[in-house]
Amino acid sequence: MAIWDGALALKTSLRLPEGMPDRLLSVDPARLKALRARTGMEIGELAERVGATTRMVAYWEAGTHTPEAQSLRQLARVLGCTVATLTGCSPGTETLADLRYAAGMSTEKAAVALREDPIGQLLFVSATKLRNLERGRYVRGWAWRNPAHTGRFVRRMAKLYGVPPRMVLDAWLRTRPGDPAPAMGEPHPPATSPAAQSRWDALNARQQVYLAEIMRDDRLVEAEMWLRRAHHLRVPPAAQWRKLPFALRAPADLVGYTRLQERLRARGVHDPGAGPTLHALERASLVVVSEDEIDFPGVGNVPRVLVELSRTGRAAARTGLHEPRQPGQPEHLLSEWLWRSMLRIIDAGPAGLGENDLTGKAPFYLAVGYRPTRGAHASRGFIISAPVMAADGSHVREYRWQLTQLGTRHILEYSQQYAEIYPNPGIGPRGDIVSDMG
């Protein structure tokens, strides 16, 4: 399969170092000074608000001393920025030490907190072991060689540092590229919610039919959007297409019926009572009703009633239809559309994919230096925009998307899982090719 030729080439050129060089986090002195100047604070005022001495802050700005993790977090809070802004850590490049620093914790404090959990006790976590872990050094203890144990430890660290487990997993793989990847496990389908069952049971028979048909129409539209993505057609935001046309406020002999109305007519429950039924579902917080206008050919602007399932409404409908909740994708894996983006870059080979060929928001979730939204957790750092120089080296001719070392390893580690959750041959890799890569 052509799409994997590029991956095989990348695999052969990949050279994972035996260990990470020691990296002691430090504040960029010039950046700290500029941020302080921007706030209009003098050194003494900043020192007072951070809880440090004026001399120490002066040392920080001179670059002769580095703030401790707790002071660093206080600095970020007082200056109205992130810890990453002070340290110069680019989104999508975080190491384990970066995450601990951003949480404002010393290795000693983090080790004490981690030892309170059974997995921390099993691993005999100490400040020394945590420092060795962060610096890519050997960590003593047989339990540290077990991916199932380190997978549990990743989750515990994520909870302590206040970040998603995938951020700790990615930081772990960056920090310790020569170690086996922690085993994150598979999500278990959650049990039916008693609250959802109660909401469904509180509806009368007519209301249950309405909610179920709205749920079915929502799924039909979702499938239509999936097909549009598969054919590289524009897909509107989910906040837009989740609002389902329920009715047109015009005579039916002029504008006909919406798809939802036709479904309800087939069930024998579409009559003048549709409005009260719909609003009863809204009062129960199961749907959200809104209105807009559309330009109907030959009629003009026609008011349109829209209905959207709420999260509680979706859960109640799923319960009423006797459908178990799906576990979804494992949290450490990419969504299908992001996985497709990765495969496009693999298919482009070592030269990479043209920068303009990766459209949409994929870079904000995948690329080094990006965040999906302001204040959101960093991208995963699986790809990078690499410059391509002119033949004479005088200027950058273009930029192309290429896999980072972490992105390549992510593919090699989890290709089989992707093949299982996205089984379409055009989406995921075949198991025999993955075994060849290994």
Task: Explain briefly what this protein structure is.
Helix content is 50%, strand content 10%.
Give an account of the 3D structure.
A hairpin with a 6-residue loop joins strand 5 (383-389) and strand 6 (396-403). The chain has helices spanning 5-13, 29-39, 43-50, 54-62, 69-79, 83-87, 96-102, 107-114, 118-122, 127-134, 147-161, 165-175, 194-201, 205-230, 238-241, 252-255, 259-266, 274-283, 311-320, 336-347, 362-366, 405-421, 431-437; strands at 244-248, 287-296, 300-309, 353-354, 383-389, 396-403. The radius of gyration is 27 Å and the shape is elongated. Helix 13 packs across helix 19 (311-320). It is mainly alpha-helical and 438 residues long. It folds into 3 domains: 20-175, Orthogonal Bundle (434 Repressor (Amino-terminal Domain)), CATH 1.10.260.40; 194-320, Arc Repressor Mutant, subunit A (Orthogonal Bundle), CATH 1.10.10; 336-437.
The CATH C-level class name of the largest domain: Mainly Alpha
User: Topology as H/E string?
Assistant: HHHHHHHHHHHHHHHEHHHEEHHEHEEHH
Which secondary-structure class do the elements indicate? Answer: mainly alpha
Helical residues, percent: 40-55%
Principal-axes geometry comes out as: elongated
> How many separate helices?
23
Average pLDDT rating? 83
Weakly predicted, low-confidence segments: 1-23, 425-438
Number of beta strands: 6
Strand order of the largest sheet: 1-3-2
Radius of gyration: 27 Å
- Any idea of the CATH topology of the largest domain? 434 Repressor (Amino-terminal Domain)
* CATH superfamily label of the largest domain: lambda repressor-like DNA-binding domains
